[in-house]
Each structure stands twice: as C-alpha cells, then as structure tokens.
C-alpha cells in the first residue's frame, strides 16, 4: 500500500502550478526519514570540516567525504523512488507526458 496517499494536497500535479511553485506531497514518515538522513549527513560534513582544521591525514578525510557522497546518493535514491511513485505517476495519469523528460533530465544530472 502506498504510504503517501494519506496526504491531501498535491502541488506538483496541479494544472495551474508551474515548476517554481510545485510542492511535494510525501507522507510524514518519508519526510522524517529524509530529514533524519540529512541531519546525519550535515553532522558528517561538520566532522569533515573539523578534520581539515585539525590537519587530519588526507586519506582519512577523503574516506569520510566518500561516505558523505554515498549517504547523499542514498537520499537521492529514496527521494527519486518516492517522486516516481507519487508525483510522476499522478502526472502520467493526467496525461502530462512532459514529466518523462523532466525525470530523465533529473536522472542524467544525478549520474554526472
């Protein structure tokens, strides 16, 4: 069952919305999960800054940077999955095929 269906508003699928004022409509659980992950990543980035200021060995810092990049990729994958199952599905159901190019551009940017 789709946990995001209990959210009432859908800003991204409105015919009158444009790219600048669309909003997501994810469940509170999804938002909390994404927020918690970002808080951890924020802490990791602050830790890396501290490592640099303490002149920690470069290889150790690079390993931490790699860890942050992996964590960000995990957030991206989760958000992309939720986006595909909610916003994109609804726009396709409304015969808005432009969303396909939008998603492809996003995926191509993620792959850089």
UniProtKB/TrEMBL annotation:
Disordered: region residues: 1-29
InterPro entries (UniProt xref): Metal_Tscrpt_repr (IPR003735), Metal_Tscrpt_repr_sf (IPR038390)
Matches recorded under Pfam families: Trns_repr_metal
GO process terms (BP): negative regulation of DNA-templated transcription
Superkingdom of origin organism: Bacteria
GO molecular function, one term: metal ion binding
PANTHER family in the cross-refs: COPPER-SENSING TRANSCRIPTIONAL REPRESSOR RICR, TRANSCRIPTIONAL REPRESSOR FRMR-RELATED
Protein name: Copper-sensing transcriptional repressor CsoR
Gene that this polypeptide is encoded by: csoR_1
């Amino acid at each position: 069952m789709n946990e995001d269906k209990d959210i009432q508003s859908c800003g991204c699928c409105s015919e009158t919305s444009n790219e600048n004022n669309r909003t997501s409509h994810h469940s509170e659980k999804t938002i909390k999960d994404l927020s918690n992950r970002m808080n951890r990543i924020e802490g990791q980035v602050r830790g890396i800054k501290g490592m640099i200021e303490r002149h920690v060995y470069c290889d150790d810092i690079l390993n931490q940077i790699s860890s942050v990049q992996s964590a960000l990729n995990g957030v991206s994958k989760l958000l992309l999955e939720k986006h595909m199952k909610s916003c994109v599905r609804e726009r396709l159901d409304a015969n808005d095929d432009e969303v396909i190019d939008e998603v492809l551009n996003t995926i191509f940017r993620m792959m850089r």
